[in-house]
Specification:
Number of strands: 0
Number of helices: 9
Structural class: mainly alpha
Shape: elongated
Order of helices and strands: HHHHHHHHH
Distance between the termini: 85 Å
CATH topology of the largest domain: Arc Repressor Mutant, subunit A
Strand content: under 5%
Number of domains: 3
Largest sheet: none
Helix content: over 70%
CATH architecture of the largest domain: Orthogonal Bundle
CATH class of the largest domain: Mainly Alpha
Length: 159
């Protein structure tokens, strides 16, 4: 065996790690933390993963900012509110301040989105009684809207 064998093995491993990362990124954007987890699950060394991700970020092929923007847009199209979006981004390794910054930059009318989401699920008629109001409020809170946004979408409690 020659001394070149470990170097060749390391180079092959680096190529395989990059190829795997690129395959994952070709399907959809990933956060750096998500991609690191997926590569580690596939058995790649942590140092190699870090180097690969640094290279991809340097080539603008991996961007947490781009991932966050696309993630937020997709969740808004699904009718999800800011509380849930920030929580889901945190699970994907994006800090709350970064997520909040991009959410604020959108200038989104969250109360209007809450109303649209409510209307799509329950129709445009207001809740007839407190029980129905509470059911709709729970739905909107689950979707990630704040209490204030829920009150704006549903109006006052029915008497």
């Amino acid at each position: 065996m020659t001394d070149d064998a470990p170097a060749a093995s390391g180079a092959a491993e680096a190529v395989a790690c990059r190829r795997t990362a690129m395959d994952l990124l070709a399907r959809r954007e990933h956060s750096r933390a998500e991609l690191a987890d997926k590569l580690a699950q596939r058995g790649f060394d942590a140092a190699l993963v870090g180097d690969t991700l640094d290279t991809l970020a340097g080539e603008c092929l991996l961007s947490d900012e781009r991932f966050t923007g696309q993630f937020i847009e997709s969740r808004i199209r699904r009718g999800q509110g800011p509380v849930r979006i920030v929580a889901e981004l945190a699970r994907r390794g994006i800090g709350g301040s970064d997520a909040r910054e991009q959410l604020d930059a959108l200038g989104m009318d969250w109360a209007a989105l809450a109303r649209e989401t409510r209307d799509a699920r329950f129709g445009t008629a207001p809740p007839e009684n407190y029980r129905e109001w509470a059911r709709q409020a729970r739905f909107l809170q689950y979707r990630g809207f704040s209490s204030e946004q829920v009150r704006n979408a549903l109006g006052d409690f029915p008497v």
